[in-house]
Predict the structure.
Amino acid sequence: MTEVIVAASREEAVDGFGDGDGVTVVAGGTIVMPEITHGRLAPKRALLIGRAGLAGVSRENGRTVIGAGTTLADLEDAVEPLGTCARRVADLEIRGQATLGGNLCADPADAPRGDLQGAFLAVGAVARSAGADGVSTQPLEEFLAAREGRLLLDVAFEEPAAGAFAALDRPHTHAFTALAVSAARSTDGEARVAVTGAARHGIRLPSAEAKADDPEAAGAACTADIGFVDDALASAWYRERTLPVLVRRALEQLQEAS
């Protein structure tokens, strides 16, 4: 028997989550429900946060805060590279239900599933989350590396001066991202480059960032930042040969947008 907790506020969501032990968070359900249906997940406690007031986008003085319960459909017109990345996730039905928190926190299973992770890394997002030690804020890359036992509340970032996105074409609308590169240039000129689909979660590409003004050189350097693996979506061999092309394309777009 699964214990079901319906959170009616952020505070109730945080209290219901506690330290996360044995808790399955359910928001849009586009990832969790198929896992339950196919017997891969049997929750002891299900925390429903769809009514917890965690959705919404606010902007003030160039800073954007996006609640974890915000649907991906509500991000389709966001600044680049977020907008393009969101529009490429699955189809209209999925985007209308799937939430930012579910996408960023999705376990990789047999392939990476966090389509938006790279885009948020590129804009320098910080994550606010709750866990056994209370509520805290940290850079998104730190959150992604240790997100087990954390309930994501929102992400925030300073809107970039320009952004770009390049990805492998999807063989099927419901496929997760096999490989995608997001790039952004901050208002002070810093370039950030990140990849989704090459590792268990999205990661930045510092070798490419160091050569961002030369897209060809950045593409040649980027493979030093990744330990490529085979999975259900693509082989390590294919990703290693394709990533330099996507890095080059994204940085060329970034130069044009700047």
